[in-house]
Amino acid sequence: MVAPENKLRLHHGKSWGQNRDGGPGSQGVLKQTSTETTLTFESIVRNDLTALRDFVTTLPEAVSSAVQKDMYATVSAAADSVGNVVSQREAGSPAKAFLEMLKKIEFGVNARGEVT
Question: Distance between CA 47 and CA 28 in Å, rounded?
Fold first, then answer.
């Protein structure tokens, strides 16, 4: 079971929203992701069928990479907006930065006494 305040509602093709009981909700907007690849004219003239195979093989990898880049940028912007950021440079080492990150984790209890 997922608590209602932790559910997202998708408005097909437009946006998603989160409604919180007694708290502020959030609204997100879908954005287009695209990628570009090249199939050379020479390979078409030579009737090189491996070029078509390579084109079809690399396309999913390129799309996946573009989606991951957008996802990480969105998560980073959300963390920055609430100040939930840890800097390895400021912490002094990866271990200290990791410990600082763990200290930022917060647990709470909702109105029904369930741990969140």
Answer: 46
